[in-house]
Design brief:
about 290 residues; 5 helices; 2 domains; single chain; endopeptidase fold (from Nostoc punctiforme); four-stranded antiparallel β-sheet; alpha+beta; about 30% strand
Length: about 290
């Protein structure tokens, strides 16, 4: 387990970065582009029954023959490396997409199924799912997809605008977050007794947000500790002149997070590392 968030090159090493493969150090073969296959060439692992598609997140095991599996930013071997998954580790799958068709892996399958996990996508042939078919819903039907769509739509509507929800102190960082949650029927994110947030850092620990939001801590030693689009990122008192900060996540990986924020300035897009981040609030309607 790494001791802290690091760059991709530090995590994988120069040799792995020189490849565009699914396994860190053990390539799979990309098949020619074409229509989605109706089945894959190898059966499910012996002794494991075929599963139906779950409506919930599914936890499966990484099976790669001893080398790490690569989680990528999109469903293709040409996309960037987000993180790696050790052989034999457990990983939670949120949903699946149809991407690049790839052949290989321990089971010798050919598939274009890529499963979304925290921060990116992993090819289905590297996982013991108990089935050659998807075991999680298509990403368009999941909370994660709805959250991402809502965050992007809000960005398109509000970037460049100054938002003041409560009429106090002008366009503060809290006002933009509150506008986002109100527009999406989530309610108002707040610190407690006041309508707004004099100290944005208090938003993360407020029990008043428990009904509407899940609280996720920023764990710098855990590569799976990554926010997703639609989460509300909260910074500590090292930000905002001691008041903290809050912003809407647009995208993230283990090393950086891109947000829609205001104060400084009107609503704007910025990318940061995780210094000062306490954690993130995930709306339960999309959890």
């Amino acid at each position: 387990m790494p001791s802290a968030r690091r760059t991709v090159s530090a995590l994988l090493g120069a040799a792995t970065l020189s490849t565009t493969v699914l396994l860190a150090g053990a390539p799979a073969t990309a098949a020619p582009a074409g229509p989605a296959p109706t089945s894959v060439s190898a059966p499910a692992p012996a002794g494991v029954s075929t599963q139906s598609v779950s409506t919930q997140a599914v936890t499966v095991r990484v099976v790669t023959g001893g080398v790490p599996a690569v989680v990528r930013a999109s469903a293709t071997t040409a996309s960037g490396v987000v993180r790696t998954l050790p052989d034999g580790s457990s990983v939670s799958l949120e949903c699946h997409v149809r991407g690049q068709t790839v052949s290989g892996g321990v089971y010798g399958v050919t598939s274009n199924v890529w499963n979304r996990t925290s921060g990116g996508y992993v090819w289905d042939g590297l996982l013991d799912t108990g089935s050659n078919d998807p075991v999680v819903p298509a990403c368009g039907s999941t909370g994660a997809a709805r959250a991402a769509a809502a965050a992007q739509a809000f960005r398109n509507a509000y970037v460049g605008r100054a938002v003041d929800v409560d009429g106090y102190y002008g366009a503060q960082c809290w006002d933009l977050a509150a506008r986002f949650t109100l527009d999406n029927g989530i309610g108002t994110v707040y610190t407690g007794g006041n309508t707004g947030a004099a100290n944005a850092y208090l938003l993360y620990g407020s029990n008043g947000n428990a009904r509407a939001f899940e609280r996720h801590a920023n764990v710098s030693t855990d590569p799976s500790s990554v926010p997703r689009a639609g989460d509300l990122l909260v910074w500590d008192t090292s930000w905002g002149g001691g008041y903290g900060h809050i912003a809407i996540v647009l995208s993230a990986n283990w090393n950086t997070v891109t947000v829609l924020q205001q104060n400084p300035g009107a609503a704007n897009v910025a990318t940061y590392d995780y210094r000062g981040v306490m954690g993130w609030l995930r709306p339960r309607v999309w959890a």
